[in-house]
Amino acid sequence: MGPNESERQTDVMFQGAGALGDDASLTIGPRGTVDFDYDVVSGGALSIEDGGVLTLDQRIEFAEIDLSGTGLSPGTYDCSALSTAGFGMMFVDGAGVVVASGGSVSECACPGNLTGDGQIDLEDLQAVAGILLQAGSPFVVPVGKGHCGDINGDLQIDLEDLQAMAGILLNAGSPFVVPCP
Q: What is the mean pLDDT of residues 66-86?
């Protein structure tokens, strides 16, 4: 919880699923406060500047997340993890999570390449498996349009995507690397 939380007022509140838009980007400037009253999945970017605050009482997912100039690695972060990383002052409430999906703000040029290294390899397979394990059963994570982990284009990462990636790598054979086109 940030300082003076009780003195802060919400500058912008998004109510109703989709109020922000599917691929919208959002910047929370100094002294700005934003609250979502629904789970967010955006293929855009979230940027929170020093002094900006996000009420974290939902699942908030953006393709890219920048906190005071530091990009979050793909993953799911609760308030405890964000506080440990030095970003606790940017989040209030604490009941939700923020998700850096690792997708691209634009369409993914190479579906399956989550690490952005120009190839599909075991690190990408591990990244998709990690996303699904963090989500838990039923192992489905909604994502925005163009996410590199969404192999079949159904706007979610699920076991079908994991299976498709494993098939791509198994067909390539050892060393299990497929260069992006």
A: 85
